[in-house]
Amino acid sequence: KYSAMLREATKTTHTAEGEGLRFSVGYNEAIDQLYNGTLNRAENTHLKLLDHTPQIYLDKAGAKDLKIITGWDIAYLAMHKSGDIPGNYHGLGPDIMKKIPQALQDPLYIIKQNNGRIIAITEIVVKKNRSVIVSVEFDSFKSTKQDGVYESDNYNLILTFMDAKASYLQNTIFKGDVVHNKNKESPEDFIL
User: Fold this and answer.
1) DSSP β-ladder status, 67-71 and 149-163
2) What is the pLDDT of residues 28-65, one digit of tens each?
3) Lowest mean pLDDT, pick from 6-10, 36-40, 97-101
4) If we measure between CA atoms, which residue out of 55, 64, 70, 41 comes closest to residue 159?
5) Contacts for 33-41 with beta carbons within 8 Å, 24 or more apart?
6) What's the predicted TM-score (pTM) here?
7) SS3 state of residue 43
8) Contacts of 166 (CB under 8 A, 6+ apart)
């Protein structure tokens, strides 16, 4: 449905200037429209998950209190199993994607990487006896440019969403500083 539009959009979603970010519909509605192929890309360059970064990220990882957003192409890749744009597809589906804003409020782990990026490992219950561990990586995104110089970081931009598999968790947890561990269990026990 999107093929030509998606290919063109992936060239411009995260421009150097970051100008022209638009959010015309709420997050859940945008997820539904993106999944069904009806999202208006011109009116929704990005999806806004939260108006503020949850306090736990400020306290534990030194994050800035900014809106949390993602590019629609990032959400498309995370939600679908396959599609019309190049990239790594994760197949989370719309139901899990809609639960991510709430899950970010109470992460299992927060990992601060050496490059300053923050990774939240969250658990989302999808059925009575099944839950999915989702890794969300975000970093500040500069979107205000004055005389060729960025004035401020206006958003925490989610760079990827994925179902966190054991090998990914092991590589991620040991490559960064675990600054929050909700259940106080060792990362080694968690990923086994």
Assistant:
1) parallel
2) 999 999 999 999 878 888 899 999 999 999 999 988 88
3) 6-10
4) 70
5) 34/72, 34/75, 34/76, 34/79, 35/79, 35/80, 35/93, 35/94, 37/1, 37/2, 39/72, 41/5, 41/9, 41/72
6) 0.78
7) coil
8) 191, 192
Instruction: Dump pLDDT digits (tens) for 104-151.
Output: 999 988 988 888 888 888 888 776 666 677 777 777 666 555 555 545
Which amino acid is present at 133? I
* Torsion angles phi and psi, residue 86, rounded to 5: -70, 145
The encoded tokens of residue 37 equal 């192929």
- Chain Cα centroid distance, residue 86: 18
Residue that has been written with the tokens 């080694």 in this structure: 188
DSSP string of 86-150?
SS-----HHHHHHHHHHHTTS-SEEEEETTS-EEEEEEEEEETTEEEEEEEEEEEEEEEEETTEE
Q: Tell me how far apart the alpha carbons of residues 78 and 188 are, in angstroms, rounded to a whole number.
A: 26
The residues that bridge with 50 in the sheet, in sequence order, are 68
d(CA 15, CA 179) in angstroms, rounded, equals 31
CB atoms within 10 A of CB 145: 14
Residue 160 token pair? 């990827």
